[in-house]
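User: I'm writing a tutorial on reading structure tokens. Could you give me a worked example: one chain, its sequence, then its tokens, then a sentence or two explaining what the tokens reveal?
Assistant: Sure. Here is the example chain.
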Amino acid sequence: MNETITYPQYRKYLNGKVYFKIISNTEWEEIQQIGKKFILNSFTSKILPDRNFLHDLIYNYEENCLDISKTEYEEVKKQLP
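And here are its predicted structure tokens:
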């Protein structure tokens, strides 16, 4: 895989309940919407399942996620307490 990726990348699940900011090939933020509440979690991949998950978010996301803009991600982030 020789494709050059520019970070950050932004994604959301097709159901619109989880948003991702991919900071690097080892770090990402995730905003989950649970009811009317929004929760922010930050992750660093240290184990293989996390690395595989992040790889899929970067390269193989089309079946589960949409590519979104920074503006859309930031609008959702404003909903955090």
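What the tokens reveal: The beta strands are 9-13, 18-22, 27-34, 37-44, 65-67. DSSP finds two helices and five strands in the chain.
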